[in-house]
User: What shape does this take?
Amino acid sequence: MPIVFVHGVNNRKSDEYRDNVVGRNEFLKEIVGPALGMSPQTLSIENPYWGDDGAQFAWNMAVLPDAEESYEKFGAGGNVEAFGRTVELISKSSQISGGVVDRARLNFAETVDLLYGAALAGVSKPEDANDIAKSYLLAVEYVASKPDLSWLKDATDDNFADLVNYYVNKNVGDEHFGAGGLLGQLKEGLSRLVNAIPDVSTELVGRLARKKLNTTVTRFAGDAFVYLAKRGEPGNEGPIVKAVLAGLKLANDAKNAKDDKLIVIAHSFGGEIMYDILTKYWPDLKVDCLITVGSQVGLFEEMKLYLASDKTIPSHYPDGKVPMPKNLARWLNVFDMNDVLSYRASPVFEGVQDFAYDTGYSTLQAHGGYFLRPSFYVRLAARLSK
Assistant: This one.
């Protein structure tokens, strides 16, 4: 059962992009694959990359205000008025009063999920990501067993990773995961959580957060504009469409009599690209399940921006919806209330199921946070197995 992951905007080839692919692939293999009846060794995953065909900025986004520079004021008020404090943009996962262990005592399952997610964010080798995925599944079993957590009374932010590793993997042994690598990854993840607590009282933190969000939104808009201007027509596709079509073709060709299903996961603007492909560029491609995550696919149909958009629907607002593509058997759409770039799809399209998922991040980080939470893969596996 091949899986195709279509990324969204603001992705460029970098160490971070490559690490994200490595981590995501291993979690899909270890957690989602078995739910689909596929072994981790045989699950085929395609990750078509189109980022280099997105927006290019001739002045390297020089138009963005620099958070560390001063500018002439436009009337009364200082920088606080000009930029606004954006304390709410700091990751909720880093707002841990008293530290990681204090949060664990309040919500152990949530904190363990954050720990493994932080560990996953730093992997660059498939074997490391695979170890984290396998250990996370053991952690899920451990939490589900309603264990005695009295050991938390002796936990500190320094030894929390050691204790989690001991109690979760004590029946396996760290050598199962290779030369102590897993414990090292968990310790690095813990360090990221502990050190993520910023001094939110400073104005500079707010301004830097504002600039990072501004950069994300700018590249989002740029990639979307480039796609719409250069996507081309069926038979004369633009470079972004060609790149995704190539990945889909590889996955589709990998199907066989025993494994004839195709799953597509589309993050962010990848949802819009897939909708165009399903309705116009490859209407004969049969997709068993499309999962749009943090996507704007419904918003773009509200604006009638697809090649297949019919301006007569709805004929009498708010009654009437756009039929789901005939070549699509099932469609799941996932959004986070804190992700300002994610939208519902069910009010616009027939047949789609909307699901809310709390990434645990706030506005600044929620859009890219779905695939950094191990629990996301567990819930995806559960939904796909139904």
